[in-house]
Specification:
Layout lengths: L1 H17 L3 H6 L3 H76 L2 H21 L9 H13 L7 H17 L3 E9 L5 E9 L3 E4 L2 E6 L4 E4 L7 H12 L15 H8 L3 H7 L1 H36 L9 H10 L6 H19 L3 H33 L5 H59 L1
Parallel strand pairs: 1-5
Antiparallel strand pairs: 1-2, 2-3, 3-4, 4-5
Length: about 450
């Protein structure tokens, strides 16, 4: 019994060593069956091992073959590289000889082609910015291709190329002296594009009915100026130029090719000037308007009073609608009093008339003094803003300082514009008032002298 157990354990160990699966061990019904299966597994493993070894040997033989082919290919490529290097050196030597021969035979034509290349490049830059590009938009590309062709040194320009360059230069020169009308697509201020008749005046200006146009070379668009010149003589001349068929037309020509027109358009108008003055500028104008209204009222009132006083001088009957008549009425009601009392009565009457004649004159004088002071205030405020901009952003961009400088200058101008007329109006109004008061005083003195003479006779 013990031997049987030992044999079974040995078989189990053999099964474990040979890798027999548990399922096969379970299926074996006897020791003989188990032994047979173990022998069969061993045979199968040996077959697999032999097949694996054969595959390894075949793969090793293939690798050796590939290695031999790679070495052969390396040797072949090294030989080819040597041949190519030799051929390259021969070609470089031959190319140098050919280039030397080419340069020798080319002679003065090389300088000619160099000049042509430079002229073609310069002409393209000038043509792209020229107003004639509106009618001939594709010539810049042709000149660019010609300059590139000459610069490549691989192909010489033909006679057609040379004549084409000459033709474009001649056409540009001819068009620069022509005034021509033609239809073109124009971008209006609202962004829409419309086809309308335009007139090109040489290389200087492009106009349409009542409007100046500008040409953008980068986009090749013809657009209306966002703001037209304020002078009507310029815009009216565009209408005459568009409708004219022959003869002469007076036209505002810009010889700087748009520089003067842009500066003229960019110049601020009166309203924009006032807006640059800010709050101080508006206060100065309001003060000036008040002073102007008071001055006009005083001029009208004193003018009427002066005419009535002049009429009263020619009349013997005292009228109560003028200062002199009211003073004479005081004399007529006090003819029986003594000279001193009459003098006091007349002086009192003149004093009563004087405030009405001098009313608001002091306010006009105050406005003439305050206006330049307010202008100085705006100047100081504007300079403070300018220095603040300099402190924050430096002096690199003048536009950042333009607002403060504009306010400083505009408020000073507004202060002087208000002060100078106020001084003149105050002088005029004060002169009329003093004239009437002087007439009253002269008449009062005459009345007193006459009354004193009568009293002395009595």
């Amino acid at each position: 019994m013990s031997r049987l157990i030992v044999k079974l354990l040995s078989v189990s160990a053999a099964v474990a060593m040979l890798g027999v699966t548990g399922v096969q061990a379970q299926d074996a019904l006897s020791l003989d069956e188990l032994l047979r299966r173990v022998e069969q597994g061993t045979v199968n493993d040996n077959k697999e091992n032999r097949a694996r070894e054969q595959r390894f040997r075949a793969s090793r033989n293939e690798q050796d073959k590939l290695l031999k082919e790679a070495r052969d290919e390396k040797v072949a490529e090294e030989n080819r590289s040597q041949r190519l290097e030799t051929q390259f050196e021969d070609n470089a030597l031959e190319l140098g000889i050919l280039e030397e021969t080419y340069t020798e035979r080319l002679g003065d034509l090389k300088e000619l082609f160099g000049v042509m290349q430079q002229v073609a490049g310069d002409a393209r830059g000038n043509f792209d910015a020229s107003l004639t590009s509106i009618q001939y938009p594709d010539r810049g590309e042709k000149l660019g291709a010609l300059a590139k062709k000459i610069g490549s040194s691989s192909e010489l320009p033909s006679m057609d190329d040379i004549e084409g360059l000459w033709f474009e230069l001649q056409r540009e020169m001819t068009e620069s002296g022509r005034v021509i009308k033609f239809p073109a697509e124009v971008t209006t201020q609202d962004g829409t594009k419309q086809t309308m008749d335009v007139v090109r005046v040489g290389l200087y200006s492009v106009v349409t009915d009542g409007k100046y146009l500008t040409y953008e070379p980068s986009t090749q668009n013809l657009t209306e100026l966002p703001r037209q010149p304020e002078q009507s003589r310029f815009t009216n001349s565009t209408e005459e130029l568009l409708s004219a068929t022959d003869g002469q037309v007076r036209f505002g020509l810009d010889p700087t090719l748009g520089g003067v027109l842009k500066s003229l358009v960019a110049r601020p108008n009166l309203i924009e000037r006032v807006q640059q003055g800010g709050l101080v500028g508006y206060l100065i104008l309001a003060l000036g308007a008040v002073g102007l209204l008071i001055s006009l009222e005083r001029l009208v009132v004193l003018g009427i009073a002066s005419r009535k006083v002049t009429a009263q001088l020619a009349s013997d009957t005292a009228s109560s609608d003028n200062p002199l008549g009211r003073v004479l009425a005081v004399y007529q009601s006090n003819t029986s009093v003594d000279t001193e009392t009459l003098e006091l009565k007349l002086a009192e009457a003149i004093f009563k008339e004087t405030p009405a004649l001098n009313r608001a004159l002091l306010f006009i004088k105050i406005i003439s003094v305050i206006a330049p002071l307010m202008g100085l205030l705006g100047t100081v405020t504007g300079m403070i803003n300018t220095f603040q901009a300099i402190t924050l952003y430096g002096t690199g961009d003048p536009k950042l300082m333009a607002g403060g400088i504009s306010q400083a200058l505009v408020t000073t101008v507004l202060g002087l514009v208000v002060a100078i007329p106020m001084v003149l109006l105050h002088t005029l109004v004060s002169g009329r008032s003093k004239r009437i008061v002087q007439v009253l005083q002269e008449q009062s003195a005459g009345i007193i002298a006459q009354h004193a003479e009568k009293s002395a006779r009595a």
